[in-house]
Specification:
- By secondary structure, the protein is of the alpha+beta class.
- It has 12 helices and 7 strands.
- A hairpin with a 5-residue loop joins strand 5 and strand 6.
- Helix 6 packs across helix 7 and helix 10 crosses helix 12.
- The strands form 2 sheets. A 5-stranded antiparallel beta sheet has the order 6-5-4-3-7. Strands 1-2 form a two-stranded antiparallel ribbon.
- It has 3 domains: 103 residues, Cytochrome Bc1 Complex, Chain D, domain 2, CATH 1.10.760; 94 residues, Orthogonal Bundle (Cytochrome Bc1 Complex, Chain D, domain 2); 48 residues, SH3 type barrels (Roll).
- The longest helix is centred in the middle third of the chain and has 15 residues.
């Protein structure tokens, strides 16, 4: 049986669908912003090309094609403090030439490269660093929008009626949804997530019935198999130890339906429902 604490943790992590239209689209220019400290004048094109070839031969297996670590367990060079402090190979060069033993016992073997080859490799690494954006940032260039409206709207409507209509209505809370969220990918992410990323999270409330018959209601702040902490309408924090079925706790989680549906969705279900919701303009 799934514990109440797990249910609460997932429920509190979700967001309501009603406020989905308020989500602002991300600023692509900001998301692609490069790290100023890594910027430098463009290097020699031929030297960088030579370094790229040498890196592929001597470094790629350990450090990966994207410098983030490879199959042989080499460290992520994009986060290496030695690489980030290096200016023109003065720090990377000795390590490439002579090897290095890490604090955890890992070792980098010396590479049989000439000084000119080492200079080329470091120039290539700096060229890659110069284009580094935030973690997980999109590639530089124009945005590429995938066509995800590949489902059947009619089938999606039937699925919606069967599984979603008890809480949502195309003539009620979802009226004009596709007009408020015009980008299909954002629309799909919003309904699968259960709400916009920036929307206010709905509170989970609880009604506690003590063995004496006394009842206390409030917003859940913490819930585990052993303890419940809530804030009552007067703003007071109340704590209740849990022993078996005492006290009796009744949870009201507005996101319970979405949470229960998540493991049941198939890709086809998601595509069909998204295609249907895109018609609600």
């Amino acid at each position: 049986m799934v514990s109440a604490s797990w249910l609460l943790a997932v429920g509190l992590g979700c967001q309501i669908l009603v406020a989905a239209g308020q989500q602002q689209q991300p600023d692509r220019a900001q998301s692609q912003r490069l790290y100023p400290a890594l910027q430098r004048p463009s290097g020699d094109v031929e030297l960088i090309a030579r370094g790229r070839a040498l890196y592929g031969i001597s470094c790629r297996a350990c450090h990966g094609i994207d410098l983030r670590g490879g199959d042989l367990g080499g460290p992520n060079l994009l986060r290496s403090q030695l690489v980030l402090r290096d200016q023109a190979g003065e720090l990377m060069g000795p390590v490439i030439r002579g090897g290095q033993v890490g604090s955890g016992g890992s070792a980098m073997p010396a590479q049989p490269l000439s000084d000119e080859d080492i200079l080329a490799v470091t120039a290539y690494i700096h060229d890659v660093l110069g284009t580094a954006s935030r973690q997980g940032g999109p590639p530089l260039g124009e945005a590429f929008e995938l066509d995800i409206l590949v489902g059947d709207p009619a089938v999606g409507r039937d699925y919606f009626i069967e599984n979603c209509s008890s809480c949502h209505s195309p003539s009620g809370d979802l009226q004009g949804l596709a007009a408020r969220i015009s980008r299909p990918q954002e629309l799909q992410n919003t309904w699968v997530r259960g709400g916009a990323r920036t929307s206010e999270r709905p509170p989970v409330t609880a009604r506690v019935t003590m063995p004496s018959g006394e009842t206390v209601e409030g917003v859940v702040e913490r819930l585990s198999d052993f303890l419940l902490v809530l804030t009552d309408p007067a703003g007071r924090h109340r704590s209740f130890s849990r022993q078996g079925e005492n006290p009796v706790i009744e949870l009201d989680d507005p996101m319970a339906g979405h949470r229960q549906m998540l493991p049941r969705y198939t890709d086809t279900d998601i595509h069909n429902v998204t295609a249907y919701l895109a018609t609600l303009k």
